[in-house]
Amino acid sequence: MIQVGIIGGAGYTAGELIRLLINHPKAEINFVYSTSNAGNKISSVHQDLLGDLDMKFTDTVNPKVDVLFLCLGHGNSVKFLSANTFSDNTKIIDLGNDFRLENDKVFQEKTFVYGLPELQRDAIKKANYIANPGCFATTIQLALLPLAQQNLLSNDVHINAVTGATGAGTSLSDTSHFPWRDNNFSYYKPFTHQHLGEITQSVKQLQNSFGSEILFMPNRGNFSRGIFATLYTNFEGTLNEAKDMFKAFYKDAKFTFVSDEVLHLKQVVNTNKCLIHLHKHNNKLLVTSITDNLLKGASGQAIQNMNLMFGLEETTGLQLKATYF
Amino acid sequence: MIQVGIIGGAGYTAGELIRLLINHPKAEINFVYSTSNAGNKISSVHQDLLGDLDMKFTDTVNPKVDVLFLCLGHGNSVKFLSANTFSDNTKIIDLGNDFRLENDKVFQEKTFVYGLPELQRDAIKKANYIANPGCFATTIQLALLPLAQQNLLSNDVHINAVTGATGAGTSLSDTSHFPWRDNNFSYYKPFTHQHLGEITQSVKQLQNSFGSEILFMPNRGNFSRGIFATLYTNFEGTLNEAKDMFKAFYKDAKFTFVSDEVLHLKQVVNTNKCLIHLHKHNNKLLVTSITDNLLKGASGQAIQNMNLMFGLEETTGLQLKATYF
Amino acid sequence: MIQVGIIGGAGYTAGELIRLLINHPKAEINFVYSTSNAGNKISSVHQDLLGDLDMKFTDTVNPKVDVLFLCLGHGNSVKFLSANTFSDNTKIIDLGNDFRLENDKVFQEKTFVYGLPELQRDAIKKANYIANPGCFATTIQLALLPLAQQNLLSNDVHINAVTGATGAGTSLSDTSHFPWRDNNFSYYKPFTHQHLGEITQSVKQLQNSFGSEILFMPNRGNFSRGIFATLYTNFEGTLNEAKDMFKAFYKDAKFTFVSDEVLHLKQVVNTNKCLIHLHKHNNKLLVTSITDNLLKGASGQAIQNMNLMFGLEETTGLQLKATYF
Amino acid sequence: MIQVGIIGGAGYTAGELIRLLINHPKAEINFVYSTSNAGNKISSVHQDLLGDLDMKFTDTVNPKVDVLFLCLGHGNSVKFLSANTFSDNTKIIDLGNDFRLENDKVFQEKTFVYGLPELQRDAIKKANYIANPGCFATTIQLALLPLAQQNLLSNDVHINAVTGATGAGTSLSDTSHFPWRDNNFSYYKPFTHQHLGEITQSVKQLQNSFGSEILFMPNRGNFSRGIFATLYTNFEGTLNEAKDMFKAFYKDAKFTFVSDEVLHLKQVVNTNKCLIHLHKHNNKLLVTSITDNLLKGASGQAIQNMNLMFGLEETTGLQLKATYF
Lengths: 325, 325, 325, 325
Hints:
4 copies of one chain form a homotetramer.
Chain A: E1 2-7, H1 12-21, E2 27-33, H2 42-45, E3 67-70, H3 76-83, E4 91-94, E5 106-107, E6 110-114, H4 117-126, E7 129-131, H5 135-149, E8 157-163, H6 178-181, E9 186-187, H7 196-206, E10 214-220, E11 227-234, H8 239-249, E12 256-259, E13 274-281, E14 284-291, H9 295-309
Parallel strand pairs in A: 1-2, 1-3, 3-4, 4-7, 6-7, 8-10, 12-13
Antiparallel strand pairs in A: 5-6, 8-11, 9-10, 11-14, 13-14
Helix pairs in contact in A: 1-9, 4-9, 5-7
């Protein structure tokens, strides 16, 4: 069994990793590190795990685990790896944004590979260190990459996306206070969301000539899980040509599917899927892309990367029952 | 007291009119017409009115009321007015979309004035027949008209807006079934919503030269009331110039205000207000506009129009306590 | 105009008082005291008030206002009145629980009258100092008092009630964090809620012999506003006898009504009403009682008390448009 | 592989069975019968299944399947079995309420065993025909049976429970219309819910002397999934004695656990678990019991029964990732 260590164990993405790993047939949780909760039962924080898991949080790491997941606030992965040493054989998957960009990808002689399987499955298989993509970044890239691969992104891209409240994490805040958030809607960081860097980097990896603008409006929805993204840009081909292109791009994808029907967010909640729908209006191609921000947008994709890195079937432990309601 | 008749009394907009009129100091409900509910207490349908109102629905109209509100499905106002005759002194306010467009505005020798007070307060004051604007149309126009007035809409306009479930009316439907809608998100009628006609018409009324595209994505949110719209377009001026322009345009507006702070939807729920916020990013001006779809987007604006038509203070009966939570 | 001062201006109940008072025809806000927000616009905290109110929070009180509302955490009214002196002519309405019980009602030679109008309208009219009832306490008492008045509470009373998240106030907490609260349900303080004291006191005021148990289960619902309470106890009479008794008890009530139809919570949201429904099953009488916890359960009832104390029509400024959706 | 047929394939419980069976390692869906949807893809109705399943609904049954799940409206299982013949080797699990009560349990020479594993695991293992318990019935029985087994139910039992909107099924209705249900709360069938029959029958199976009343108030919550039930009754022992008794009763249970901490509903959503918490107040024992109404309350328990009937490990295919948020 693959021995797994989790750092930052009290947050949402760590919780999701634990939920996935307790049912993963080839991996085993070795330790869950949380300084603030050390000594407490994991199920005292992730309370749905009662009956599933007796393990406690620890403040001691096992430096010899096979794989380490970093579930830390942005900037803290660098700090953690500077202060703690692991075996050279320990693979690392960082769920933060410390190593995602070209300029950040080498740290302590480790080279982090950007972990979007649909873009670079082969590189991931060979990687020892993975920078797991952001949630908005995953959802939006999967809507753009088939176009980029064909060098068809020649105009501005207009993106509007809504995320659930888990996207803002476990920290209490005014905009996650129930009386505020319930039945409310708002936006944040208009046109400047930090995931734009990853998105642009991946688009240029496929379409080096890309020089248009990506205009991205992120919104806060009054739901807990999921990202619903729509984007449009100029596209001269027919709708069928677009569908064929997307289906070809995703023909080997295990979790990304093109839907002929219009989508709604709950189709993917509590799954590792990304569903994509295409619509043509005059010369615009409208692409809808939906994911669960905590799974395909974070911990599910991290396990998918782990599976690839360890030579397992990509879907191992990720065939999840959707909630749907 | 102004005697009021309401046609189509069982729907949401009629319910809102009744809620407003029972506290209106200058108007009195004369009858509420609903063929399907005739003989039943109004409070058996609009159940919050228990204790406020003993009146019953009727299937007989009083043709001599001072003002008639038509709260019918689209297309049915024409049918109703064809089948029923009212006094020449009866003013009519149609909440449907039958008379909003230039080509539809004359019917039975009646000329309907488009009832957006911020655009044509003076014409409304003199009007006997009002076509009350649509909810998306109101929210979006109020974000565009100050720019149109200055002939500054010279590029495509990108609009994303989310509406609550009341926007789809009282008819039961799959996409308003609670287990589907709860914690969900979806879009409908991409780029082709029927309110585009009104919006374009009003923009051209102020900026005849307007020839760019309006790209409008309407979405279904998992809340009950309100519209949250964001739009952006090219704008060469500064943010302060934009603010000055919008504040000047709305200096006499009783319900439309420019906010220096970022907005969230619940600021306007259960009020007749439209709040607007401006943000500049590079050469793009981002305008946020929020309303309660049933009030400023429908019944509240209808009462506002009635007030203007009858020479009352525009805010009469519309100084509402916001719900906020 | 009655000059009003509000202490503790940043909380939910103060916000509701402000929303009510800006439209109250006989009262005027003189100052809103908040040490943490002094100098900031009131609309920067209560953000729906943009366009309604330009006033700022202050940290200075005007000791000569006609009426003072205390919107402080429990225990803090005593502290505040110990540290601040007001005119002898200043009436005080405390929305906290410092003066509600017989043992607490005299403070600094001021005698606080328990401000439930349905129970003691006449005493309130003559009072200078009011202890405004708790939200659960109001909702539950209004379901029990007609029985107590007839000395008919002879067995245990079983109460289950659900409150919205505003009931827990503005302080951020784990159980008001949106990802936790959304689509969730839980209980707290089983059988020991602090409002039991008030409830028992009022019941005994009408039925001195009352010696049975009141078993009260308070729950947290995943909505923002409102209390839905059901209670049952033995009752030997018929349903019609019960209805007659309740209707007689509330024949002069301005906001409490008996519904012949089954109730649902949103009938009272954003109103000052309490609706009551009766149902008989074998020898049990089931009483449903619903209120908006922030209005009839707090700030609305406080204004109702103010109206009575100043000789105004009880409903002044309280004829509110229900939200309903 | 166990060949499975599903009758009534378009409803919620059938959808959940399909979601469970596509990942079940020992069973395979042979056909999904739905007359109204015959010929359509299953993923056109259960739209989260896109990418998981290409099968279509059929209006033809395969009479030789190993097990048949009936997901029909109450009363329709009898009709269906009267009109259709299956192999003598076909086991049947009815998710409706046609065969749950002693008087109904023999039909066409088939004897249906009440399928609550915690009560009669051994009988289920030997059964060919199962009457799967109701959702409220499961949740409430699991809170009562340990007491009944010890003959400790000697007084009235007071139950309050809230269910999500999926409990009302896929049929559109006023009380499941989003603008009504959102942020609302209500009750239905006070003291007369149809599951009382099952509950009483099981209690008497363990405690034949039981003669007290079960007072059950069912409520509609504004969430989609789950049942949160609290009940209390007289109990003379200590809290620890109660805990020991419950833990002993459930020591072999695979999905029912006693929590030392207070519960909240989302701990069990999208799992097959029942969590139970005990609290003592004076002479009352308060028992909280929570389940997912569609899983432990319906389809999950049906699969659990299938596993037992076919000699599989009870948890096969039921180790589900909780949604939690």
